[in-house]
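Data card: per-record layout.
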Amino acid sequence: MTVRKIDKAKKKAYQRRWYEENIEHIKNYRKKYNKENRARERERARIKRASRSPEQIEHDRTRAKQSRDRRRESIREASRLDRAAKPEVHVLHSLRTKCRRKKMAFNLTPDDVVAPECCPIFGIKLQRGVHSETKRKGPADCSPSVDRIIPELGYVKGNVIVVSHLANRIRNDATPEQIHAVADFYEKLLSERGYHEN
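The structure for this 198-residue chain is written out next.
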């Protein structure tokens, strides 16, 4: 090795040894410097804000609003893409939050809420991301929805089925007997009033 390389190796070894011996002092100094630097930056920013003209204040507010709008739209777009890529995870998160709020049982996994191609009740094709025609933010009739077979048991394995939002809305918390009673009543009512003949 040349003298220059030996000197460099000795210098690196000394620097490493010095750093290890003074690591606590270095950390405390960095913490103190960062704290003082942040305080200086805050004071400098406060003085700068106080010295602005009304036009500058309005300009800064406009730029801040534009920045917030861009950031909000970026977050929404990222959320939309994430929901499209992992719909089951998004559904699970919503159900878990609902169960925590209403104190219901929950032990589902993503495999339990995978939507079939068609609604098992009405046979309509299930589609995500479709909104209702009457309610802009509400789900459409063809949107997949997780229904509890026995509502009192909560969202647990073996007690859920993915159907259309239309079917889930009709079923709600009613029992099969109640649904039959409603169907029989309206069937009889429509027959008495002659709607079936038309």
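Known properties of this structure: The mean pLDDT is 84. Helices lie at 3-21, 23-50, 54-85, 87-102, 165-171, 176-192.

See the next section for split statistics.
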